[in-house]
Structure prediction request, 134 residues.
Amino acid sequence: MPCEYSSSWVCFPKDQTGNASVEFAIWFPLLFLKLLVVIDLSFSMIVSASLWHTSRDTARAIATHRITEGEAAEYFRNSLLLSHMPVDLQVNGTRTEVRIRASIDSTDAAITPILPRIMPSPIRARVAMLREPV
Prediction:
Protein backbone atom coordinates (compact mmCIF):
# COMPACT_ATOMS: atom_id res chain seq x y z
CA MET A 1 0.00 0.00 0.00
CA PRO A 2 1.56 3.32 -0.99
CA CYS A 3 2.10 5.86 1.75
CA GLU A 4 0.89 9.45 1.52
CA TYR A 5 3.22 10.50 4.29
CA SER A 6 5.79 8.37 5.96
CA SER A 7 8.29 8.75 8.69
CA SER A 8 10.75 6.32 10.12
CA TRP A 9 8.14 4.45 12.17
CA VAL A 10 4.68 5.20 10.75
CA CYS A 11 2.98 5.08 7.36
CA PHE A 12 -0.31 6.86 6.60
CA PRO A 13 -2.09 5.20 3.67
CA LYS A 14 -3.84 7.17 0.94
CA ASP A 15 -6.93 4.97 1.22
CA GLN A 16 -9.26 6.50 3.83
CA THR A 17 -12.32 4.28 3.51
CA GLY A 18 -14.05 3.77 6.82
CA ASN A 19 -13.17 7.17 8.27
CA ALA A 20 -16.79 8.30 8.18
CA SER A 21 -17.90 5.17 10.01
CA VAL A 22 -15.37 5.70 12.78
CA GLU A 23 -16.29 9.37 13.14
CA PHE A 24 -19.97 8.48 13.19
CA ALA A 25 -19.39 5.88 15.91
CA ILE A 26 -17.55 8.47 18.00
CA TRP A 27 -19.88 11.45 17.56
CA PHE A 28 -23.33 9.84 17.34
CA PRO A 29 -23.75 9.03 21.06
CA LEU A 30 -22.75 12.56 22.02
CA LEU A 31 -25.08 14.18 19.51
CA PHE A 32 -27.92 11.84 20.48
CA LEU A 33 -27.45 12.70 24.15
CA LYS A 34 -27.51 16.40 23.30
CA LEU A 35 -30.74 15.89 21.33
CA LEU A 36 -32.35 14.10 24.30
CA VAL A 37 -31.36 16.92 26.65
CA VAL A 38 -32.83 19.54 24.29
CA ILE A 39 -36.08 17.58 23.91
CA ASP A 40 -36.35 17.05 27.66
CA LEU A 41 -35.64 20.70 28.44
CA SER A 42 -38.18 21.83 25.83
CA PHE A 43 -40.83 19.56 27.32
CA SER A 44 -40.13 20.89 30.82
CA MET A 45 -40.53 24.45 29.49
CA ILE A 46 -43.90 23.49 28.02
CA VAL A 47 -44.92 21.98 31.37
CA SER A 48 -43.76 25.13 33.20
CA ALA A 49 -45.64 27.45 30.83
CA SER A 50 -48.77 25.34 31.14
CA LEU A 51 -48.49 25.35 34.94
CA TRP A 52 -48.13 29.15 35.04
CA HIS A 53 -50.97 29.74 32.59
CA THR A 54 -53.34 27.36 34.38
CA SER A 55 -52.48 28.84 37.80
CA ARG A 56 -53.14 32.35 36.55
CA ASP A 57 -56.37 31.30 34.84
CA THR A 58 -57.63 29.51 37.96
CA ALA A 59 -56.77 32.49 40.17
CA ARG A 60 -58.56 34.79 37.73
CA ALA A 61 -61.64 32.54 37.73
CA ILE A 62 -61.78 32.65 41.53
CA ALA A 63 -61.09 36.40 41.66
CA THR A 64 -63.91 37.14 39.22
CA HIS A 65 -66.29 34.83 41.13
CA ARG A 66 -66.75 32.36 38.23
CA ILE A 67 -65.79 29.44 40.48
CA THR A 68 -65.41 28.92 44.21
CA GLU A 69 -62.26 27.85 46.00
CA GLY A 70 -63.72 24.38 46.41
CA GLU A 71 -64.10 24.00 42.64
CA ALA A 72 -60.58 25.29 41.96
CA ALA A 73 -58.81 21.91 41.99
CA GLU A 74 -61.16 20.38 39.43
CA TYR A 75 -61.05 23.53 37.27
CA PHE A 76 -57.23 23.52 37.46
CA ARG A 77 -56.91 19.86 36.43
CA ASN A 78 -59.37 20.28 33.55
CA SER A 79 -57.51 23.36 32.29
CA LEU A 80 -53.98 21.94 32.59
CA LEU A 81 -52.43 21.03 29.23
CA LEU A 82 -51.07 17.72 30.51
CA SER A 83 -53.86 16.79 32.89
CA HIS A 84 -52.43 13.33 33.69
CA MET A 85 -49.49 14.80 35.65
CA PRO A 86 -49.69 14.72 39.44
CA VAL A 87 -49.84 18.33 40.62
CA ASP A 88 -49.48 19.58 44.17
CA LEU A 89 -52.06 22.39 44.30
CA GLN A 90 -52.73 24.80 47.18
CA VAL A 91 -55.49 27.40 46.96
CA ASN A 92 -55.66 30.01 49.71
CA GLY A 93 -58.13 32.82 49.65
CA THR A 94 -59.03 35.74 51.83
CA ARG A 95 -61.77 38.28 51.40
CA THR A 96 -59.51 40.47 49.26
CA GLU A 97 -57.11 38.15 47.46
CA VAL A 98 -56.49 34.67 46.06
CA ARG A 99 -53.18 32.80 46.21
CA ILE A 100 -52.42 29.68 44.20
CA ARG A 101 -49.32 27.53 44.51
CA ALA A 102 -48.83 24.66 42.09
CA SER A 103 -45.84 22.38 41.64
CA ILE A 104 -44.92 19.35 39.59
CA ASP A 105 -41.99 17.12 40.49
CA SER A 106 -39.22 17.23 37.89
CA THR A 107 -39.26 13.44 37.54
CA ASP A 108 -42.93 13.65 36.49
CA ALA A 109 -42.21 16.51 34.06
CA ALA A 110 -39.40 14.69 32.26
CA ILE A 111 -39.47 12.40 29.27
CA THR A 112 -36.06 10.89 30.02
CA PRO A 113 -34.22 10.44 33.33
CA ILE A 114 -31.65 13.03 32.22
CA LEU A 115 -33.51 16.19 33.29
CA PRO A 116 -34.12 15.24 36.95
CA ARG A 117 -30.36 14.74 37.32
CA ILE A 118 -29.65 18.19 35.88
CA MET A 119 -32.57 19.99 37.53
CA PRO A 120 -33.75 18.04 40.61
CA SER A 121 -36.03 20.76 42.01
CA PRO A 122 -39.76 20.75 41.19
CA ILE A 123 -41.34 23.09 38.66
CA ARG A 124 -43.39 25.67 40.56
CA ALA A 125 -45.90 28.41 39.87
CA ARG A 126 -47.16 30.92 42.43
CA VAL A 127 -49.90 33.41 41.61
CA ALA A 128 -51.56 36.02 43.77
CA MET A 129 -54.52 38.03 42.51
CA LEU A 130 -56.86 40.58 44.08
CA ARG A 131 -60.53 39.70 44.15
CA GLU A 132 -62.91 41.85 42.21
CA PRO A 133 -65.80 43.41 44.13
CA VAL A 134 -69.12 41.63 43.93
Remarks:
- The two ends are 92 Å apart (CA to CA).
- The chain is about 45% helix and 20% strand.
- The mean pLDDT is 88.
- Residues 19-63 form the longest helix (45 residues).
